[in-house]
Amino acid sequence: MTAALITPQEMGQADRLTIEGGLPGLDLMERAGSAVAGMAANYAPAGGRIHILCGPGNNGGDGFVAARLLAAKGYDVRVDLLTSPSGLTGDAAAAFAAMTLPFEILTSGDQLIGNMADRFAGADVIVDALFGAGLDRPLSGPAAELVEAVNGSNAAILAVDLPSGINGATGEIMGSAIKAHATVTFFLKKPGHLLFPGRGLGGSITVAQIGIETGVLDTIGPAAFENKPDLWLASWPRPAVNGHKYSKGHAVVFSGPMARTGAARLSAMAALRTGAGLVTLASPPDAMMVNASHLTAVMLKKVSGPEAIPELLSDPRLNAVLIGPGYGIGEATKTAVEAIVAKGRSLVLDADGLTSFSENPQKLFDLMKENGSPVILTPHDGEFMRLFPDLADRNKLGRAREAARRSGATVVLKGPDTVIAAPDGRAAINCNAPPFLATAGSGDVLAGIAVGLLAQGVAAFEAACQAVWLHGEAGLAAGPGLIAEDLPTALREPLRHLWTSLA
After folding, report:
1. Could you say which DSSP state residue 491 is in?
2. CA gap 50, 158 in Å, rounded
3. Are strands 419-421 and 107-108 parallel, antiparallel or unpaired?
4. What percent helix, strand, coil does the chain show, rounded to 5?
5. Strand partners, 302
6. Does residue 147 contact residue 116 with C-beta atoms inside 8 Å?
7. Which of 163, 138, 171, 167 is nearest to 415 (CA)?
8. Cis peptide upstream of residue 197 (ω within 30 degrees of 0)
């Protein structure tokens, strides 16, 4: 199973390549409509009423096929067209001609005909085959009114491909959008299924295979992926039977002053739990006692300030560094980051380490590009906008990709739909994070997981993807009521799962 996601434009290319390979487009539509009919039947009682709303394109064609198949199975099928069938072309027109069922046209000019609430009263299922992922303009007028009427009904709503009104490439709402209980899409998921707000409107997603072979991806070359082990398992660091702690890397986590030490300790514990052979907490002198009283397996090293970093990192075995959590904002932090970058270590830059460069982010980006070592930036939305204020009007996937290109770093743009983007344009969208991860210190654990993976030699993009997935799985394992201190221990369950997958 591939982790690839494809945009609506790429899906059109996949259809075209498949048709050129000898499978007629009408056959693709028949298979898609059959999948829709099967899903709709799951939500309706025997003989129940199913309204199928058909738009003017191939999404409507899928609806016509589903209507014909459902009627043949004895369901009370009502076919509603948004506009006159005279505008149908190609396979959609052929599917309409083969349907041979009564239908109603819901519009006249720019008006809906009749009371939609009355029309949908008593419907068990409404199938949204209006526009799907190919929509390229905001819904307005009768289409928007119809969407609102559907959302106000008591029926189960099944979306075909993607809820009408959702941009398949970005997940954005285009004017208004269907809120579905379930969605059936074809071949592969689209980014809009995983990115909010679209992700919150699609319900459960079923991917139906309709005869498109994965070989078409060699030509299409998708650059977006769902973040799951299929994407990066080959890069997972496998402990060697004859390995030892020094062969698994040595991560350094920088601690803040005495009153702000907890964040770095969370990161350090996560790095160690994730598999780094050794982890050292670099502590300012005033925080040595409080850090020492909380640490056991994590080592402790007194570092008096940025001027002591070159000496600390003169040991080449210290190969990955995290700075930012609880470290403090200001010139001293900038100097410390610059000293770390100059030593050529793999770096995770988080929290205060990011915000300290908000007045001159280009200086940071230039330093990172000049050095060329792997860097992962882990901003939440607020931190991101301090570094990239001109990207506010872009969609989340576009923002993360441009930030990665501009900075030369792998960017982890955090949130319920975290996007991980590499400078080369690859991007992964995460979807396993439970809502109870939104708690103080959670991001510090994520940064620690990432630096632990960098220490083991995982490339930056793959390390970031692995870290975000592990973080979500740890949150699921810890369950409701978790606090950040629970997460390093909760990592054991997903780590065991990965180990089993590789056995």
Report:
1. T
2. 10
3. unpaired
4. 45, 15, 35
5. 283
6. no
7. 171
8. yes
Q: Where are the alpha helices (DSSP H) in 256-321?
A: 262-274, 288-292, 309-312
Residue reference for tokens 């129940």: 48
**Angle, CA of 30, 32 and 35, to the nearest 5°:** 110
Angle between helices 460-478 and 442-455 (to 10 degrees): 140
* Chain centroid, CA 342 distance in Å: 32
Q: CB neighbours of 381 closer than 8 A, spacing ≥ 6?
A: 413, 414, 415
d(CA 279, CA 40): 54
Distances 343 to 132, 310, 318 between C-alpha atoms, Å: 51, 7, 10
Q: Return the bridge partners of 226, or none.
A: 429
Q: How many residues does the chain have?
A: 503
Give the dihedral sign, CA 272/274/277/279.
negative
Interatomic CA distance for residues 180 and 159, integer angstroms? 6
Residue 1 has pLDDT above 70, yes or no: no
Closest CA to 321 of 268, 259, 397: 268
- Looking only at the bridges linking them, the beta strands covering 410-413 and 419-421 are antiparallel
Which two tokens mark 94? 């052929």
The rounded distance, in Å, linking the Cα atoms of 456 and 280 is 15
Cβ-defined contacts of 147-153 (< 8 Å, 24+): 147/176, 147/177, 147/178, 148/176, 149/112, 149/116, 149/117, 149/119, 149/120, 150/53, 150/116, 150/120, 150/126, 150/178, 151/178, 151/179, 152/117, 153/117, 153/120, 153/121, 153/123, 153/126
Cα torsion through 473, 479, 480, 481, rounded to 10: -100
pTM: 0.97
Decide: 273 and 452 in contact? Cβ < 8 Å.
yes
pLDDT digits (tens, 9 = 90+) for 101-116: 999 999 998 899 999 9
Six-digit token string for 480: 């409701």
* Token output for 153: 């009904």
pLDDT for residue 136: 83
DSSP-derived secondary structure for 45-114: -TT-EEEEEE-SSHHHHHHHHHHHHHHHTT-EEEEEESS-GGG--HHHHHHHHHH---EEE-EETTEE-S
Which residue type does 97 have? Answer: A
The string of pLDDT tens digits covering residues 65-124 is 999 999 999 999 999 999 999 999 999 999 999 999 999 999 998 899 999 999 999 999
